[in-house]
Design a protein that fits this description.
The complex is a heterodimer of chains A (271) and B (420). Chain A has 271 residues and is mostly helical. In chain A, 77% of the residues lie in helices and 0% in strands. Chain B folds into three domains: 160 residues, Glutamyl-tRNA reductase, N-terminal domain (Beta Polymerase, domain 2); 142 residues, 3-Layer(aba) Sandwich (Rossmann fold); 83 residues, no CATH class. The chains are: A mainly alpha (271), B alpha/beta (420).
Chain lengths: 271, 420
């Protein structure tokens, strides 16, 4: 049942992406409104599939890379839907939905395999740790996306090319605001996630912190995000600089997520 | 019975002539009365705006009506006949239809794609209706025109982008700030363009406009006109920290806003975005600011080039609009041709119905033996036979009329059925 709902979600994600992109081309809000409902149904189907998977496998649905990707895709679309309600910038959907779709498709490649779960991942702190950090990452992904859009829009306006493509993007202020909200919320969740992880680490490895490459890399990302928040709130950075930094920080976070397992030996070798 | 359109617009007549005409035509109802009195005119619509004066009419005799309408224009405008010949255009039938479609769709406007003209045409039509000067023909024609205008607006991007410097400035400001509610603007100098841009900003929700000028009184005058505030020119540097949009148009020979001033202001305003529009020549704002983070600088040439691009875009869209208009003119002309056979069809049906009536009367003597229900059934039977028989010739007549070949058939039907 879980995989059936996941397939339904995939199809709906695809349809909502087509809808959002069509709405840009034909410039009809109505099409974007329909796409939002399609995306909402996709999100509902995805939620159902995650719950089914949790029940069917008997362990939390975030124990490997593919499950995590699926979870992030789910979180990104959920967070976007909240933004949609709050900000009414439907145009963002055309940029978010392809990202969600790519993550969901990548996840679908190996999602059906029911791999052996290491005993270490059976504790109740595991889903808390993973879901907090992954939702945080999803927020950072959206911050990065809005940062990229900010840089593009900034460049277009600055270089007097503020027609055509530029009119498809939200205003600079809106993009900066989305970036800000995502980073504040993401940082909060990531911090809680790291704390939950260290509690769990003490249970399984005996100490709160192992200086493992994965942990160090996460710490670096965390510090960059902390720095970013400091610059914004204490120094008064806005716009371009924040956008650049949020993109850099997300690239490092991505490296933490997949790169560390490839280039380093880590005890944190499940995701 | 023809449709004609007599008029002049900004392309054919210089302002002085249009002025004369529109001032003397100011009393709309009086003009209308005169138009209605022309006996050759069946229905009429009178449209007068600052860029055009036009009379659209459905007439019995084209030549005569034209002469009378020309006379009317002539006596009203105090024009020489030579002037009038040069400025006046006259369209008949399909070209008159096309012209009114183009006018309503804003393709014939001075600023192509501007939205006001449709409202003006609608007002003119409403007045015509109130004066009972419209009938089948103009009602249909104007409703077609409104539909065409709607199609052009939704199916092409003709009125999408700003084509004036001040509306472009507002559009850019919206790209930066989203909506302009709660934003403050600073207007430096007293140029007419600056005032226009300020008006546009206020119209788009800007909270407060502050005026400043080397001559304080001039700032005060502008502030009074536009319900704004003023600030002394010496305090310009400080004023930069509280505003989001700056419009500068002074006659100063050098830069009055430089990097140092803006850098200091940005620190005070915690890098909130700043949009500077420099419409002064020579420039008021150091162009180096174009590279400063969180500052967006546009000068008059930048704005003008956006306007030019948008205008080019409108011209492209106008081509699409012309295709729509071609379609609709053809569609209207089919309706018009069908209309020509309508009297014949009505006559034919009338004759048939009178035959039925007569025969029913004559059959009354034996029909009274039938009960209510049976009598009704007989009537239904007779009517449905007649309708079946008439269906093919009537459809055929309509089809022929759309191809413009209905006249011989009309003649034959009239002759055979003795319709005259």
């Amino acid at each position: 049942m879980g995989s059936l709902f996941f397939k339904i979600a995939l199809v709906l994600y695809f349809l909502s992406m087509l809808g959002y992109i069509t709405s840009l081309v034909v410039r009809r809000v109505q099409v974007a409104k329909v796409s939002t409902w399609v995306l909402f149904s996709a999100f509902a189907a995805h939620t159902t599939s995650i719950i089914f998977r949790w029940v069917e496998t008997g362990h939390s649905p975030v124990t490997n890379l593919f499950e995590s990707l699926s979870f992030i895709a789910w979180a990104v679309s959920g967070i976007y839907l909240i933004f949609q309600v709050k900000t009414k910038t439907r145009v963002l959907g055309a940029f978010v939905s392809p990202v969600v779709l790519v993550m969901a498709i990548t996840a679908s490649a190996r999602l059906v395999e029911d791999a052996e779960i290491p005993a270490i991942l059976m504790g109740s702190w595991v889903p808390i740790h993973v879901m907090l950090t992954l939702t945080g990452s999803a927020l950072f992904a959206l911050a990065c996306l809005s940062g990229i859009m900010y840089l593009v829009q900034d460049d277009l306006i600055r270089n007097k090319k503020a027609y055509g493509f530029s009119r498809l993007l939200p205003s600079l202020r809106e993009l900066d605001r989305i970036n800000n909200i995502c980073i504040v919320a993401g940082f909060f969740l990531l911090t809680l996630g790291i704390i939950a992880g260290s509690v769990w680490a003490r249970n399984v490895w005996g100490s709160h912190w192992q200086w493992d490459p994965k942990q160090v890399s996460t710490l670096i990302s965390w510090i960059i995000y902390a720095l970013l928040l400091h610059q914004r709130f204490a120094i008064g950075w806005k716009g371009r600089k924040v956008a650049v930094l949020s993109i850099v920080a997300f690239v490092i976070l991505l490296f933490t997520f997949v790169g560390v397992n490839i280039f380093f030996v880590t005890v944190h070798n499940f995701i | 019975m023809d449709i004609i359109l007599v008029g002049m617009n900004h392309k054919t007549a210089p302002l002085e002539i249009r002025e004369k005409l529109s001032i003397s035509c100011d009393d709309d109802t009086a003009t209308f009365e005169k138009i209605k009195k022309i006996s050759y005119i069946n229905e009429a619509l009178y449209l007068s705006t600052c860029n055009r004066v036009e009379v659209l009419a459905h007439v019995f005799d084209v030549a005569a009506a034209e002469t009378y309408l020309k006379d009317l224009v002539f006596s009203h405008g105090n024009l020489s006949s030579e002037e009038m010949e040069r400025c006046l255009y006259i369209y008949r039938n399909d070209s008159a239809v096309r012209h009114i479609f183009r006018v309503a769709s804003s393709l014939d406007s001075m600023v192509m794609g501007e939205p006001q003209i449709l409202g003006q045409v609608k007002d003119a039509y409403r007045r015509s209706v109130e004066q009972e000067a419209t009938g089948v023909m103009l009602n249909k024609l104007l409703h077609y025109a409104f539909r065409v205008a709607k199609r052009v607006r939704t199916e092409t991007a003709i009125s999408n982008n700003a084509v004036s410097v001040s509306s472009t400035a507002v559009e850019l400001a919206k790209k930066i700030f989203g909506n302009l509610r709660g934003k403050n603007a600073l207007v430096i100098g007293a140029g007419e363009m600056a005032a226009l841009a300020a008006k546009h900003l206020i119209g788009n929700g800007v909270k407060k406009v502050i005026f400043t000028n080397r001559t304080y009184e001039r700032a005060l005058t502008m502030a009074n006109d536009l319900h704004g505030d003023t600030v002394s020119f010496d305090l310009l540097g400080e004023a930069l920290s509280d505003v989001d949009i700056i419009i500068s148009s002074t006659g100063a020979p050098g830069y009055i806003i430089d990097e140092k001033m803006v850098a200091a202001a940005l620190r005070r305003r915690k890098n909130r975005l700043l949009f500077i529009i420099d419409i002064a020549v020579p420039r008021d704002v150091d162009p180096a600011l174009g590279k400063t983070d969180n500052v967006y600088l546009y000068n008059i040439d930048n704005l003008q080039s956006v306007v030019d691009d948008n205008m080019k875009n409108r011209i492209n869209e106008a081509e699409k609009a012309e295709t729509i208009i071609d379609e609709e003119v053809a569609e209207f002309s089919r309706w018009l041709k069908r209309l020509q056979v309508v009297p014949t069809i009505v006559d034919l049906r009338g004759k048939v119905e009178s035959i039925i009536k007569g025969e029913m009367m004559r059959a009354g003597s034996w029909m009274k033996n039938l009960d209510e229900g049976e009598r009704e059934n007989v009537e239904i039977l007779v009517n449905s036979i007649i309708n079946k028989i008439l269906h093919d010739p009537v459809t055929g007549l309509k089809e022929e009329s759309e191809n413009g070949g209905a006249n011989p058939y009309v003649a034959v039907i009239k002759k055979l059925f003795k319709l005259d």
